[in-house]
Amino acid sequence: MERLQKAIAQAGVASRRRAEQYITNGEVKVNGKVVKELGTKVSGNDVVEVKGVQIQKEEPVYYLFYKPRGVITSVSDDKGRKTVLDYFKDVEYRIYPVGRLDYDTSGILLLTNDGDLDNKLTHPKYEVDKTYVAKVKGTVTVPELKKLRDGIVIDGKKTAKASADLVKPGDDGKSSIVSLTIHEGRNHQVKNMFAAVGHPVEKLSRTDYGFLSLNGLNAGEYRRLKPHEVEQLKKLTNNK
Fold first, then answer.
1. Where in the chain is the domain with CATH 3.30.70.580?
2. What's the fold here for domain 2-54?
3. In which band, very low, low, confident or very high, does the pLDDT at 240 lie, cut at 50, 70 and 90?
4. Which residues form the RNA-binding S4 domain (predicted)?
5. How many CB atoms are closer than 10 A to CB 81?
6. Mean pLDDT computed over 118-139
7. Which CATH class is domain 129-209?
8. Can you say whether the dihedral through the CA atoms of 132, 229, 13, 4 is positive or negative?
9. How many helices (H) and strands (E) are present in the chain, helices listed first?
10. pTM for the full model?
11. Ranges of CATH 3.10.290.10 domains, the chain
12. b or e along 43-76 (b: 16 or more beta carbons within 10 Å of the residue's beta carbon)?
């Protein structure tokens, strides 16, 4: 027996948090009856329907994608903009992005149909490092780097300690390139951190996700994760 939302997530229908929304919204049936209780448990013999469609458990798959700028991190967009799934039209599995990257941010993004792993990777308690390289306005000073490392108060809450290094100060003093590694995932966190020290972001890319990097990929390309990479990702969260 397993929780209903976990069964839905493992079927590749949606992330576990989205599955919980479906349940509380009355969009899930178990054996023909609407179920709204998140604690409900189901077995492999139960018939589960989401929005009228019976779920089938899929083989878990994992992809690493080099997201280009100007692409929405979503499975669909009501404004008709390009989404990350537009690059996966040949993939037969119902995958979805793990977390998100802003429309104007490029870089590493994971996609999967494993709702349990998605839930862990996006939960701040598991502290999975994510490294960003930012081109920011002005010359970033040593004291400002220390502020980024020590944590900055944003919307009344201090960010966790981070790693921040000056990659290139900029020849003209008008801009700097800085590497920032964080393990949180607040909305627009990297941009807000740089803005808080007086250096708005001009260009941003996520270069690393845990031990994974973009090596060998160009923008718009993806590859399937190797079995040992999947196991290593799981170990990152199972050890917490």
1. 62-124+212-238
2. 3.10.290
3. low
4. 2-65
5. 13
6. 88
7. alpha beta
8. negative
9. 6, 17
10. 0.79
11. 2-54
12. eeeeebbbeeeebeebebbbbbbbbbeebbbebe
End-to-end CA, the chain? 24
Q: State yes or no: is 155 an active-site residue.
A: no
- pLDDT tens string 61-93: 999 999 999 999 988 888 888 999 999 999 988
Q: What is the dihedral sign for C-alpha 167, 172, 173, 174?
A: negative
Beta strands 105-112 and 175-182 are: unpaired
The boundaries of every CATH 3.30.70.1560 domain in the chain are 129-209
| Separation CA 236–CA 15 (nearest Å) | 19
Return the residue matching tokens 């944590």.
151
Tokens 């700028």 correspond to 69
Active-site residue (options: 102, 116, 129, 165): 102
Contact indicator for 201, 182 with CB cutoff of 8 Å: no
Sign of CA dihedral 134, 75, 109, 50: positive
Q: Which string of DSSP letters, residue by residue, matches 96-114? A: EESS---TTEEEEEEEES-
Q: In whole angstroms, what is the distance from residue 150 CA to residue 162 CA?
A: 7
Return d(Cα 23, Cα 68) in angstroms, integer. 33
In whole angstroms, give the CA distance from residue 20 to residue 4: 9
> Between β-strands 48-50 and 201-209, what pairing exists: parallel, antiparallel or unpaired?
unpaired
